Amino acid sequence: MQVNKVKIITVLITFSVAICALIILATPPKLPLSSSNNKALVVNILKAKPQEFTPSYQAYGRIETPNILTLFAQVEGEILFLNNNFEVGSRVNRSETIYHIDDEDYKNQLQARLGELKVAEANLKLELGEQRFSKSEYKRVRPKKDSPNLKLQESLMLRKPQLEIAKANILIATSNLELAKKNLERCKFQSKENYVVLEKSAYQGDFVKKGDKIGTFAQLSELRVSLSIPHDVASVLSIGQRFKVYRDDNTFFNAHISQIPPTQALTSQLQSVYLTVDNDSGTLMINEFVAAELTLPTFKNVLKVPLSSIDGDKIWLVDKNNQLFSKRVNVIWKNKESIIIKNILEEGMSIVKNKVSGAKNGLKADISNGEL
Q1: Model-level pTM?
Q2: Do the beta carbons of residue 304 and residue 51 sit within 8 Å?
């Protein structure tokens, strides 16, 4: 009897537990009332002020020269002299003689051409004397007007052909003399600029013919740097803008933009820009690595904000009532730490400087910091 009573109680308890479980499962859970709409979002603010900003861009390149001089022998003969610095990598300064070819034959030619000119001048004087005699003779035996070939007879009697030949001989002798002078001058070459030797093709004692290569030189007084920079930077540059280029030891040289060639590849993100570098001191060398500091145009009425304040293409602001709202931004410049945007602030507004999650327009802001 006692056993049956225990069994009945056990069954009742089990049945009650099962009924409670069914009730719990059948009843959906009730979420607690949220107060998120009224909860303020904790933010750090930045009370930025409009300012002017002058961006700069640093680009790197190697020194090159736009002016290459290749020397060819302009006369033939033995090379009697070569500049002591005429070696690859060495410098030849302005006004120095680079080479000198044996000029004795050309001096003799010059004297001969000078003598030919004097003979031609003397022959012209003689002919002018004959002209005076022929004119008087012509007056004495003037041909009849109805004579055939009257003009030819007059020309021959007045010795006009002889006079033309005498004058032509003067021109020929003068031209030959000038050519002889040039050939004598071409026996040596004097540098008009500062050069560095790139190639040596002839040596002292060599016999060269006209057109033989002697050497190749690069001008040093005016050098060039080729830079590859982004299109948006290149678009605000212009021919003639002056900048500085720096060596590794921070010594600098003045430079200006000499060329911005059109982009050949439309898909390229970079644009070539050429700077002409003043090298009056002659200390810069070909292929030397330099940095160019490009100062770009100044932007007015802009804001400098931390990168953390940018949320995609917008920025979060706090108004004078401590309410959050967002605005799209127009980015002007960007670096590793900050970003420059056009001024979007109105009176009483502050910038949210920290990353925020769950921000919505109109949400209350709990400012955790003072003015930064």
Answers
A1: 0.57
A2: yes
